[in-house]
Every structure is written in C-alpha cells, then in structure tokens.
Specification:
This is Peptidoglycan bridge formation protein FemAB. The chain is α+β, with helices and mostly antiparallel strands and 374 residues long. It contains 12 helices and 16 strands. The chain folds into 2 domains: 126 residues, Aminopeptidase, CATH 3.40.630; 207 residues, Gcn5-related N-acetyltransferase (GNAT) (Aminopeptidase, 3-Layer(aba) Sandwich). Helix content is 36%, strand content 26%.
C-alpha cells in the first residue's frame, strides 16, 4: 500500500532531519532560500499510523511562459531506499503529487553509495597506466543492494542521468566524491592518515606564521575576491557574491553551525578561504578559494587541517571533500585536485547518480535538447 505523501511544515521537516544521523545539506528547508529562482516545498511521507517516515526538499523551476515545472530533489529525498517496494510505496506517491503540481519532469539524487575505493586503492589506480577512469580500478567495496535499487528504478521508468562533459562530473550534483572517514577515529588517527606531503605542508604553514580563523557575513566579500580569482585560474564560471550572502543568511538562521567560513592569513594578507557545511554528523568542505600569492607558505593545507580539526570536535563521522573527477589521466587538470583530497586520507565514493522521470515526454525531451546546447 502506498504511503501518504503531503506537504509538511518547516519545523516538521527539520525535526525529521534532526532524527537522522545525517542528511544532505541540500535536503534541509533552508536550502530552498538559497535558490530564489526555484519554488521550494517540503514533502513528508506518512505511514498507516500517521507517523512521518520520510521527508524531502523539492525545488520547482518554472518553464518560461508555461505553468510547468522541473521538480528537483538534490541528493534526496530522505526515504527508505532499501525498501523492497521502494517504487510503488515511496516514489509513486511523490510522482503523483508533483504531477498535480504541474511538474513535467522529476530529477532526484538517491543518497545511496554503490562503490568505495580506499586511499591506497585510489593511489594505486592513479599510478596504474592501464586505469584511465576510477571504474577501471578494483573497488574496495561494492554494495549489491545499490545495484538492485538501480535495476528497480529502471524497471519503473526512471532514467539514469548521463554524466556531463566536464571531465567526469555529473550534470547537477557529483556522482563521485572524496570523503575522509572520522567515525571511531581520534584526531591523532586522522593526522596519521595524512600523507607525508600534507603533514610537511601543515608544519611549513605553522612555521611561516599562517593563521586560520573563522569569519562571518562581513568577511564574505574577502572570500569572494579569492573565489573570483580561483574561478579565472581554474576556468570555471563563478557564482555571484549575493549567492553566498543568501546561503549564509538562510543556513545560519536555521542552525548557527550549518555554515562556517574559514580564512587563512599571513602577515594580515588573506591567502585562502573556504566554507564548511554541517548537517548531523556529516561535514562538507563546500567552496574553496585561494590566491596565487605566497603559495610557498601552504595556506590551503593549514586551512583544511583547521576545518578537519573543528569537524572532529563537532563529532563528525565523515569529512566530505565533495566532487572529484573519475578520470585518472595525467592530462586532466582535475587530477591534481584528486591527489590533494586523497592526500588528506580521503577515499573515493561513488553514489547512484541522478535519475530522471519524464512526466511529460515532449517537454522533457525539449529540456534535454536545451541542456545539451548549453
């Protein structure tokens, strides 16, 4: 029997998230305020006894001149993904509700891990000339239940979104991420997990007098100056400053530690900055920025170690470096970023990826063509 699905209040949504060990920062109510071009709605799944057993933040993006929407649940919803009747009991009520809302297509990102590669496995894969992509290397673990979920989604009409053209990153949220496991480990254990270069750079920064501190809303322009410089250097399109100001206002109003800003300085000169997000026992390194000046004092390593130290103090079970490329070719400029993250003791994690359900095939196809031309 399908579960009952209906809109829920912000407080109900937050209480449900608080009852879980963790959830994506894109599945908390405040994330809707970060995206003003989308209309946000909190959805709840209720069982036969009226208990809230699942929740999701859906973002609805209108099509110009039409009362039709793309419905998007980034890294969600928060449901029982391993339920044997997942599609019938959980997802069909969601599709029916969103169709009534005017959605022509639904996109979701199941927070389900398929494969993991340990730090050693990733290093070996990078060194192996025969391995061109992460998938060519033997994973440390593989969850057969995740593969079963994928089969059931396909059988119910869901389509797995194709990876984007940007060197292995998926359209939307990244399918591959790098995470440092913290659960059951002391800070000394985590420090020992850093590679030799990381430990050396942290010492070098300390000796050079690099100071890492927390900033506030008023420091976002300083962060943004470095972020814009980073965007130009690394060839990506930066988000505007008001995006980060909205993000700070919305997330910290919901929880004072939902978003933090860190700044690394040397002799009063801000050299690096980063944002950190927390939901439950999951901590994310969200946005990073740095200047090309004074790289020899290693501000990035110093800043990351301070963030990891604070995350451990907060009781984090995982420190998430977010997206990585799945290509291992030396010619790829993102390989250096993978080495940096793995050097912190990170392991590569592959999620189930994003999935689409076309409720109106004609409009869904038109959107696909539009996105392909962008």
């Amino acid at each position: 029997m399908p579960l009952r699905l209906q809109p829920i209040t912000r407080d109900e949504h937050l209480a449900f998230v608080a009852s879980r060990p963790s959830a994506s920062h894109m599945q908390v109510p405040s994330w809707g305020a970060v995206k003003p071009d989308w209309r946000a709605e909190s959805l709840g799944w209720f069982d036969e006894e009226g208990r809230l057993v699942g929740a999701g933040l859906v973002l609805l993006r209108p099509l110009p001149k039409l009362k039709k929407y793309l419905a998007y649940l980034p890294e969600g919803p928060i449901v029982d993904w391993h339920a044997p009747d997942l599609c019938e009991r959980w997802l069909e009520p969601m599709l029916a509700h969103l169709k009534r809302q005017g959605a022509f297509s639904v996109k979701m990102g199941p927070p389900v891990v398929v494969r993991r590669w340990s730090t050693e496995a990733v290093k070996a894969a990078i060194a192996d000339p025969a391995a061109r992509r992460l998938g060519d290397a033997e994973p440390t673990s593989c969850d057969a239940r995740a593969l079963d979920i994928a089969d059931r989604l396909r059988g119910s009409g869901w389509r797995q979104a194709e990876p984007g053209s940007e060197e292995g990153f998926a359209v939307g949220q990244p399918r591959h991420v790098c995470q440092v496991p913290f659960a059951g480990r002391s800070l000394d254990d985590i420090h020992r997990g850093l590679n030799q270069q990381w430990r050396r750079n942290i010492k070098k920064a300390e000796k050079a007098g690099v100071k890492v501190g927390r900033g506030g809303y008023e420091d976002l322009p300083a962060f943004y100056d470095l972020y814009a410089e980073t965007a130009e250097r690394d060839r990506f399109i930066p988000r505007p400053l008001p995006y980060f100001q909205r993000m700070w206002t919305a997330l910290t109003a919901e929880h004072p530690d939902r978003m933090r800003l860190y700044l690394a300085q040397h002799d009063g000169d801000t050299l690096a900055a980063a944002t950190m997000l927390t939901v439950g026992d999951h901590v994310w390194y969200s946005y990073g920025a740095s200047t090309s000046r004074k790289r020899e004092v290693q501000p990035n390593n110093a800043m990351q170690w301070r963030m990891m130290t604070d995350a451990h103090e907060l009781g984090a079970a995982v420190y998430d470096f977010r997206g990585i490329t799945d290509t291992l070719e030396e010619s790829n400029h993102l390989l250096g970023l993978l080495r940096f993250k793995v050097g912190a003791g990170g392991e590569a994690v592959e999620y189930l990826g994003e999935w689409d359900f076309p409720l109106n095939r004609l409009l869904h196809k038109a959107l696909d063509l539009y996105m392909a031309r962008r």
